[in-house]
Amino acid sequence: MLRLSLLGAPLVTVDASPVAFDTRKATALLALLAVERRPQPRDRLAALLWPDADATRARSALRRTLSVTSAAVGDAVVAGRSVVELDATRSTCDVTEFEDLVNAGDAASLRAATRLYRDDFLAGFSLRDAPEWEDWHERIADSMRRRLAVALGAMVDADIAAGDLDTAVADAERWLALDPMHEPAHHALIRLYAWRGDRSAAMRQYRTCVRVLDEELGVEPLPETTELYDAVRRDSLPPPQVTAAAPAVPEPEPVAASSAGVVVVGRAAELTTIRQAIGRAADGRGIAAVAVGPTGAGKTTLLRLVTEATPTQSFTVAVRCHPDEAALAYGVVIELLRGLLVAAPHVVEKLPRHVRSELARLLPEV
User: pTM score > 0.70 for this model?
Assistant: First the structure.
């Protein structure tokens, strides 16, 4: 049985024995197949893992890597003529187990999910010569962190309901560590410290929240945060609501426009524009969104909202631009086209031959 442990530094085992590869791309290939949970076109895998090679050399490299991988892990890898996949009956992966546990939504499952999460997805692992794969890696890692945040927030509520404030503090501290600017996590710790009788720790937590928001975003805390601080200072905080049994934990809601709890401040106009643009995209019209501003202004968050709010029948491609790359001819166009090849290779395949020939001037893999 093939076991992929990808939440943290990657570990591949077969029948509990570690397996090593002479190329990092074998691990990257297995990770993608396991997380995607569906057959992957060979052309997509070749373009993702060997973007600088022409199509023939990329497919040849993929064949060699598949051969090496299959020799090490056995028949868990199913390589067809045009697609490659993992046999779910011969392999397991902690990422898919984590997702299934979070989706279950009950307290026991969420607790198991938080214990399964050793560290970020493929922590410390990278492919410097495969930027599209790195983008996929970052996207999955962000998604896993958001799902962990949902699980930890729900566990804090369940811990409080069960009267286990010490465990609630540990869960809240881990929750806040995922995003030090997340005010609900600060709220939880302020309340928990106060309920445990450590009012000075609760007030320090409030000051930490104020400082982080000021340094990172240049904003003041929400009114609810200030009201909570005042209640602690006046010693008028209501006691925790403890029940005889922990309440059922609701199933995590899909990530909404707040990006799993991240508060977007002072961007009402931009968010309205994004929602209107997505509405046009839902009608079948492609759109382009451009976020311009200095480092730390929140561009990445806004663009993430675009991706998360995109209808399931649509897709997005994205590229980052920097002033020192202004002299690169067609750089943005090339990166966007590569993103298109990853997100929707079938679209490119439907283009007329003469159009694909012109595209090949910029992207030889076409």
Answer: no
